[in-house]
């Protein structure tokens, strides 16, 4: 299965996809984590860091080449959960092209719907424990604005493809996980019955 998570910063995409990982046994691909890991280790990573630290999106070509390299790894041959990718229409189109070539279309796109004021509180709490440089009040505001402007158009893009399922992300991590699991199970039945 190939699953995409979309939601504003702080909505719990990472937590939800890690919980689903135990359930589905397919790997998790977080572009935010990949970019943070590349920060110290490559010139491209250092370039990407300049955008991340300002709360802006890293340019599409950098993200796309990084994701392409990951998807070629054998670990991803049975599918994966994309967390924080795609984040622009250009990334979504490029993902569609590459999945078409591989003959493995997306199974479901899960939107985590959340209240923004609550999200900002959650992110400031996370900043205190994880010390992420992009979790300052200023960058949080910018990342929220970037989500609305560049990422939220993806909701319509995937709705038109019949792939979008929206889930209330304001409950406890366990409650949110149950909603996601129900949506994924329903999709699995549809996919399996279509396959005969
Ligand atoms: P995240 O951990 O998903 O919240 O991502 C942290 C930061 O990494 C974002 O604010 C962006 O600067 C960058 N980033 C992560 N994923 C992408 C992506 N798909 N496209 C562009 N920038 C990204």
Give the structure's gist in a few sentences.
59% of the residues lie in helices and 12% in strands. The protein has nine helices and five strands, in the order E-H-E-H-H-H-E-H-E-H-H-H-E-H.
Task: Please provide a written account of the structure.
This protein is an alpha/beta fold. The chain has a domain at 2-24 and 107-195: 3-Layer(aba) Sandwich (Rossmann fold), CATH 3.40.50. Helices cover 59% and strands 12% of the residues. It has helices spanning 13-24, 31-38, 43-52, 60-71, 89-102, 116-130, 137-151, 153-160, 173-194, and strands at 2-6, 28-30, 80-83, 108-113, 164-168. A 5-stranded parallel sheet has the order 2-3-1-4-5, sandwiched between helices. The mean pLDDT is 90. Residues 9, 31-32, 35, 51-52, 55-58, 63, 84-87, 91, 134, 143 line the site of adenosine monophosphate.
The total count of helices amounts to 9
Structural class by sheet pairing and helices: alpha/beta
> Stretches where pLDDT falls below 50 for ≥5 residues?
none
CATH class of the domain at 2-24 and 107-195: Alpha Beta
CATH-defined fold name of the domain at 2-24 and 107-195: Rossmann fold
Q: What is the CA–CA distance across the termini?
A: 17 Å
CATH homologous superfamily placement of the domain at 2-24 and 107-195: P-loop containing nucleotide triphosphate hydrolases
Strand fraction equals 5-15%
Radius of gyration (CA) equals 16 Å
Provide the CATH architecture of the domain at 2-24 and 107-195.
3-Layer(aba) Sandwich
Query: What compounds are bound to the protein?
Result: adenosine monophosphate
Major sheet: arrangement of strands: 2-3-1-4-5
Order of helices and strands: EHEHHHEHEHHHEH
């Amino acid at each position: 299965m190939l699953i995409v998570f979309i939601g504003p910063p702080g909505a719990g995409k990472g937590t939800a996809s890690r919980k689903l990982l135990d359930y589905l046994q397919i790997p998790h691909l977080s572009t935010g984590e990949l970019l943070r890991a590349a920060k110290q280790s490559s010139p491209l990573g250092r370039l990407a860091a300049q955008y991340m630290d300002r709360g802006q999106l890293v340019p599409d070509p950098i993200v796309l080449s990084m994701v392409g390299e990951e998807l070629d790894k054998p670990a991803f041959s049975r599918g994966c959960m994309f967390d924080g990718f795609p984040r622009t229409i250009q990334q979504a189109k490029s993902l569609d092209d590459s999945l078409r070539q591989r003959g493995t279309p997306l199974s479901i796109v899960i939107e985590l719907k959340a209240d923004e004021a609550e999200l900002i509180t959650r992110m400031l709490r996370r900043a205190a424990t994880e010390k992420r440089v992009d979790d300052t009040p200023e960058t949080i505001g910018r990342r929220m604005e970037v989500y609305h402007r560049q990422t939220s158009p993806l909701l319509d893009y995937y709705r038109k493809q019949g792939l979008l399922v929206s889930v209330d992300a304001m409950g406890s991590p366990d409650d949110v996980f149950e909603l996601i699991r129900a949506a994924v199970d329903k999709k699995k039945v549809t996919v399996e019955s279509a396959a005969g």
